[in-house]
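Quick one, T. Sequence first:
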Amino acid sequence: MRLLFLLLTFLVFSLTFGFAVAQDLDKAKQEGRLIFYTSWGPTDADYVLRAFERKYPFIKVDSVRSSSEKTLNRLLTEQRAGQFLGDVVAVSGIQSGILKDRGGLERYRSKEAANFPADWQDEYGVGLHQTIYVIGYNSRLVAHDAAPKDFDDLLQPRWKGQLGWDMEEYYLFGALLKARGRERGMDFWRRMAEQKINFRKGYTLISELVSAGEFPVAVSLYQHRVDEYREKGAPLQWVAPNPLVGGDPNRISLLKNAAHPQAAKIFVDYMLSLEGQKLLQDKGRSPGRIGLGPKNPRLKGVKTFTFHATRDEYEELGKSFNNLFQVQ
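Structure tokens:
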């Protein structure tokens, strides 16, 4: 009797769940599209979105791409104007936190969230993937044995005036302060400021300039971007420093007052699914789904230090960074 009851309960649940899923799909078909705000690069976005559209051909995805900071500012501007044009957003955890604080996100608990680390999620979103910070160098200008092996190696006199770095890299700055302790960390960064770093804006630009030999070494580059350039024949190589810093995870969330909420939920679920996470892995990202791991075998089993910064902490880091390095 008990077995029969359990079987009937399972059957009722399965039918109810299947009916609910069918209803969700019908609503998504009626909506027919969604607007996706993202900081992904164009090749990454196109690769992932085309795969989603092949699986759900009744949902057309229009992407709005820019940096996490610009995406945040655009969404806040639209919100102040009472315009709610987007449905889903994927930006860094810091910008996602600001959007949440400003009331720009909608609560949504995806069924896939259980497959992600607890500190990568809250009721407003889940971390899709993580950017890994590495030291980059031009392999034609710097021999492997002579390349810096760690952040402290960048303090050697030979690298003075020879280093490139992003002029808004507050995150790595803060992560090393956290990892090393404030006093020891600030001592390191003061000595780094004496190295006369060549600042430029944007990691893609820094990668291109190191490839071109504008400067032989970068304080940090995105690991997946170096791998992408190397596959295209660029003379770029990377070193995994200690600690290996991972950025505040790129988080996916529903936007407030989404015009296409059901299509948006299906997209979020898909990106958090094993299939969606493998797409990000294909593009060299380090996906958040437990048990999946990064694509590059050099990162398998390597422990990553993640720094979760609040909006106030990030703004304070920016001021300290600019004052120390005299970046305008």
